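Lab notebook, design round three. We kept the backbone fixed and only want residue identities now. Task for the bench partner: fill in a sequence for the structure below.
Input structure tokens:
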């Protein structure tokens, strides 16, 4: 069980964001995000969007820091990658 986070370098809505992922399951990812107090609406297909000001909180809670390209590689290797436009991002049991 490992949760990973990339640096907050993704711009959006006037701030920078990180991606929080699991290499095991979405259930594990949702549980970790819930412990951090991250709202479910921050889940996007296969990751949570985490604002830069919460990055240190995620790392302190046990998320492993990786480069952004590692996030995609880890998701592919785990079979958890959901490319945009192919899967619903919210609402299903496995999302």
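Proposed sequence:
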């Amino acid at each position: 069980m490992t949760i990973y986070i990339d640096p907050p370098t993704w711009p959006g809505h006037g701030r920078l964001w990180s991606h929080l992922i699991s290499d095991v399951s979405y259930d594990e990812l949702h549980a970790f995000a819930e412990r951090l107090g991250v709202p479910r609406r921050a889940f996007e297909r296969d990751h949570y969007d985490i604002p830069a000001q919460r990055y240190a909180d995620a790392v302190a809670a046990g998320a492993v820091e990786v480069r952004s390209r590692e996030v995609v590689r880890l998701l592919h290797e785990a079979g958890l990658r959901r490319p945009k436009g192919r899967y619903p991002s919210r609402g299903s049991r496995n999302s």
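Keep this in mind before ordering anything: Residues 14 and 51 are 10 Å apart (CA to CA).
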